[in-house]
Amino acid sequence: MVIHTEMITDGMVDLVVQGVVTNERKTIHRGKIVGCFALGTRRLYDFLHENPMVEMYPVSYTNDPQVIPRNDNLVSINATTAVNLWGQCASESIGAVHYSGTGGQVDFARGDLASRGEKGF
């Protein structure tokens, strides 16, 4: 498994520690976790600190729909709060309450469509 993401989280540390993520099959940035920013606990920040496996880039690079598909067999996983019967997603609110922003969802959805062997969720 590989990671090319906008946001690096605590769960990703668990995947690396358990050997699930090695990034050895990446087409670009082989062996590296690529991200734009991180949000989590002290454990995450300790993992990131001077870790040669992690490379941070500007959002204009990590979320570039022309860079994203350069990783073959990309599986793009985006979070959402609601999906209707037509497959439309609402990620900004829960009912009338603002919850989050769209973030890089559209970028990664477009990028995974252009990846050889892509899957998007």
What does the largest sheet look like? Answer: 2 strands, parallel
The CATH architecture designation is: 2-Layer Sandwich
Radius of gyration: 15 Å
Helix content: 10-25%
Distance between the termini: 16 Å
Q: Which fold name is given in CATH as the topology?
A: Transcription Regulator spoIIAA
Our count of domains comes out at 1
CATH class: Alpha Beta
| Unreliable parts | none
Jot down its keywords.
single chain; 121 residues; alpha/beta; Transcription Regulator spoIIAA; two-stranded parallel sheet; two-stranded parallel ribbon
Fold and architecture overview:
- By secondary structure, this protein is of the alpha/beta class.
- It has a single domain, classed as Transcription Regulator spoIIAA (2-Layer Sandwich).
- Helix content is 24%, strand content 18%.
- It has four helices and ten strands; from the N terminus they run βαββαβαβββββαβ.
- The chain has helices at 10-17, 42-48, 59-62, 105-114; strands at 7-8, 33-35, 37-38, 54-56, 75-76, 82-83, 89-90, 93-94, 97-98, 119-120.
- The protein has a two-stranded parallel sheet. A two-stranded parallel ribbon has the order 2-4.
- Strand 8 and strand 9 form a beta hairpin.
- The mean pLDDT is 85.
Protein topology:
Blueprint: E1 7-8, H1 10-17, E2 33-35, E3 37-38, H2 42-48, E4 54-56, H3 59-62, E5 75-76, E6 82-83, E7 89-90, E8 93-94, E9 97-98, H4 105-114, E10 119-120
Parallel strand pairs: 1-3, 2-4, 5-10
Antiparallel strand pairs: 6-7, 8-9
